[in-house]
């Protein structure tokens, strides 16, 4: 795609935190996801990236996604994904884990009941 064509791709502006792995390394960097589309994202953070460098980013509800740094300016950089994703998944709430069986002895105490309205004082 030409640069002009890529500006027309639908993007979701959002603010998420993600983990970034640079050039196949083990070290993880926390980045802010500023916008996200099926083919890429804009991130912001202190990751040591350069244009063309391979990266992997862990996106909420999607998992690890491979790509390459498309551009870099100051602390912001673009990532072009190797394969398209569904960006709506990253916006969805994190799926709740199945409750684990807890014995009565290890259960937290029930929440205290709210006091009767006549017992409350005005501030």
From TrEMBL:
Pfam families, A to Z: PilZ
Sequence segments annotated as region (Disordered): 96-123
Segments of skewed composition (Low complexity): 96-106
PilZ domain: residues covered: 10-89
Coiled-coil region list: none
Domain of life: Bacteria
Alphabetized GO MF terms: cyclic-di-GMP binding
Stated name of the protein: PilZ domain-containing protein
Lineage of origin: Bacteria, Pseudomonadati, Pseudomonadota, Alphaproteobacteria, Sphingomonadales
